[in-house]
Amino acid sequence: MSPLSPPPPSPSPSASPSPAPALPSPLSASPALTPCPGPVVPARPASLTGARSVRLALCLAPLLLAGGWATANRPVVYEGARRLAAADPAWLPAGIGFTCLSWVAASCVRQGAVPDRLPARLLLASQFAAGAANHALPGGLGAHAVTLRFLRAQGVPPARAAASIGLYSLAKSGAKTLVLLVFLAVSPAWRRLGELVPDGRLLLPFAAVAGGVAAVAGAVLAVVRPLRRPVTGLVRAALADVREVHTRPCRVCALWGGAVAMPLVQAGTLVCVGDSLGLGVPWEQVVLAHLAAGTAVGAVPAPGGLAVDAALVWTLVTFGATPAVATATVIGYRVLTDWLPLLPGALVLSALIRTKVL
């Protein structure tokens, strides 16, 4: 601008700036407000409800089966309960002691089945709690599930933990069979077990079913490639752990010594209960009956060990016991080994879960 040019005209005071266009109000443009609904509660998944129903059914299955059997055999159950109430209590501490030794033996087998060193107290507590889990799942699956979670919490890889479960089951069944063969060789009562062997016509269908299951499993592993890989890896891990465990004398003693001691201490509890009731069967025959019944029907998937109990009563009667006393003996044995530790075992299981041990 030149210094001689006039200044620009100033705006007139009467002139006012044009008003800015009015902005629409958010309240006026929004639709009518509705009250805020309460918190939405998510619907419970159907799978979770179904799983809880299945667990409840599995827990109630042993009670329903036992109730049905007791209803059908009321006189025998009444006489057995009467004899159990009048039993000699002097044998009770010995029976409880043998029951506690069974948990120690199980802990030894679990430690011997894995190369890693496990904390002894927590391992014993987990095996005590595993007894409560066995009432919900058949075939010892409850104890295996608790042990698997315990091993994973101790840093054992999944493949090695699963391999230890297989080695535990193999050592337990093999040692029980070996002890049974020894008692069959030294006891003259083995001839009476011939009355319990089923007819050959019944063994053929069972053998056919077992062979068919094995053939189907082999065909599935051969055809389904995604399933073959994890199974092959699990088998390799199991074989590696078996070789490593058997290179350590302490693991070998724990594995096979505990596996041999476990059926003997369990049979010791049965002997104590039988002596308190006046069973009238020598202790070696009681041990033989326990081993034979457990080996014959131990693999039957019945919750609560009901199949083993029925076979045990039948075997004791075959050895000369009266049905009422044999029933009372098996009931007392099951009370000491399962029902009496059930509530403490459930509390220990809950405590181990809360403390992240499982």
Major sheet details: none
Oligomer: single chain
Beta percentage is under 5%
Termini separation comes to 88 Å
Principal-axes shape call: globular
Could you explain how this protein is built, in words?
With 358 residues, this protein is mainly α. It contains 14 helices and no strands. The protein has helices spanning 26-29, 46-72, 74-85, 92-112, 120-133, 141-153, 158-186, 200-223, 225-245, 249-277, 283-297, 306-318, 323-339, 342-354. Helix 4 packs antiparallel against helix 10 (249-277), helix 5 crosses helix 14 (342-354) and helix 10 (249-277) packs across helix 13. The longest helix is centred in the middle third of the chain and has 29 residues, at 158-186. It is globular, with a radius of gyration of 34 Å. The model is unreliable at 12-18 and 23-33 (pLDDT under 50).
Task: Characterize this entry briefly.
By secondary structure, the chain is mainly alpha-helical. The protein is built from 14 helices and no strands.
Layout of strands and helices, then pairs:
Elements: H1 26-29, H2 46-72, H3 74-85, H4 92-112, H5 120-133, H6 141-153, H7 158-186, H8 200-223, H9 225-245, H10 249-277, H11 283-297, H12 306-318, H13 323-339, H14 342-354
Helix pairs in contact: 3-13, 4-5, 4-10, 5-6, 5-14, 6-7, 7-9, 7-10, 7-11, 8-9, 10-11, 10-13, 11-12, 12-13
